[in-house]
Amino acid sequence: MPRPRPLPIDPLAEAKRQWLAHGWTESADGMAVVISVMRAQQLLLARVDAALKPFRLSFARYEVLRLLAFSRNGSLPLSSVVARLQVHATSLTSTAERLVRDGLVNREPHPHDGRAAMLTLTDAGRELVERATLALNTEVFTNPGVDADDAGALVGIVARLRRNAGDFTDPRPLPDPL
After folding, report:
1. CATH value at residue 127
2. Residue 66, Cβ neighbours under 10 Å: how many?
3. pTM of the full structure
């Protein structure tokens, strides 16, 4: 897919100018933050989608496969996947069903909880997620569009935004060793 020609002006800067011109001074910076982050997300997701397209994976499906591949034995309870990926159970159930249908994961009964289910990565799922990860590393993650210093600063700023929104809490400090 060819990249669109860059606009001659930054539309977000123009939006902020309009906000200020309309007297919404107290909201202008916040509007610029929200819209900037949302636009950056669109741009990055387009790159991720393009990298995953040859593997017939959505980012949601990739995340499940990668999480299972990171686990000790390639298997996790469905509820743990929901919690770690911070998605709704219904969305994950739909994603898992497609992964099962495609032979990339198995859905099995939980060994200790008859009401729960386990997702287990198949050999085909492991092979696919490794190839997809190589593509993402090469095509997106190695060069996200900012240098290393900016990347560190951006991750820190977004982490504060997420923490302040209640996305996670800082871990409790460990006690000093005796």
Report:
1. 1.10.10.10
2. 17
3. 0.85
